[in-house]
Amino acid sequence: MVYVDYMRKKPGPKPSSKVRRAWDADMAYAVGLITSDGCLSTDGRHIIFVSKDLQQVIHFLSALEIENNPIRKKTGGFRTSAWYIQFSDVLFWQWLTTIGLMPNKSKVLGSMKIPKVFFFDFLRGLFDGDGSVYGFRDYRWAQSYMYYLAFTSASKRFLLWLHRMINQQLGTTGHIALSRRAWQLKYAKKDGLAILKAMYYAPSLLCLERKRQRARWLLMTASRYESRGRGGTWQTRQLEGLVGASL
User: Fold this and answer.
1) What pLDDT does 1 receive?
2) Burial track 187-210 (b if 16+ CB lie within 10 A, e otherwise)
3) For residue 7, what pLDDT band results from cuts at 50, 70 and 90?
4) Is the pLDDT score of 234 beyond 50?
5) What superfamily would CATH give domain 2-107?
């Protein structure tokens, strides 16, 4: 591939690295963010990360233990703005390619090599970048509130891998469908709850706070609907337990 050829054509002294290349919960979270909102430059050395949320950029730097790297703001069309960082690290760039990332990855991304023990930290990073959670009242039943958790990608092959990995570990179902210009992997209610519990397994995790609070609000709303006329159902107890714990 192009980036491999580039690396072979650049002899010289061994490059140094500013980013550690060892797996832990924070590294897995950072890899999830890079997978969703990051970019590997074709020059074989630069990593770029862009987000509308300043907190997310700060968490990204913290997860990688990068200090004194400037955070810049850029403005796009229709007066939209985003925060971005760029840093150079040949060894980290190469390491990212060994786990499945590559330049211009959006439509060609496939399976990735993520340690099973850190998979849901990776998934939380992916969720903070390209995930969403939303809900609505289901008027077919008086005490029913539907909510969905979704992951979006331009690569169906990547979502097929993600679907398989989540289902193998949690026994969930989910489904993949084309939504406008991208593919979505969706999970409803009980399955979505299981994934949220797996991603937010402790209160002091790196995460995008607004998405955590959004999930918390939806679960509290669903809990109120489920508790009306149903007493203490399994679903209600699980919702209340999650809201009162890690979320």
Assistant:
1) 44
2) bbbebbbbbbbbbbeeeebbbbee
3) very low
4) no
5) Homing endonucleases (3.10.28.10)
Give which of 115, 110, 126, 116 is closest to 169, Cα–Cα: 116
Taking alpha carbons only, the member of 104, 111, 86, 108 closest to residue 3 is 104
Q: Which residue has the tokens 């609505």?
A: 136
Average pLDDT over residues 80-92: 93
Q: Which fold has domain 125-244?
A: Endonuclease I-creI (3.10.28)
Which residues are within 8 A (CB) of 45 and not within 5 positions of it... i.e. 6 or more apart? 15, 88, 89, 90, 93
Alpha carbon 67 to its chain centroid, in Å, reads: 23
Query: Quick check: 166 pLDDT over 70?
Result: yes
Query: Cα Rg for the chain, rounded, in angstroms?
Result: 20
- Give the per-residue pLDDT at 18: 79
Which residues on neighbouring strands pair with residue 155, listed in sequence order? none
Contact 116, 164 (CB under 8 A): no
Q: Where in the chain is the domain with CATH 3.10.28.10?
A: 2-107, 125-244
Cα–Cα distance measured from residue 230 to residue 198, given in angstroms and rounded to the nearest whole number: 26
pTM score, two decimals?
0.85
pLDDT for the residue numbered 244: 46
Mean pLDDT in the chain? 85
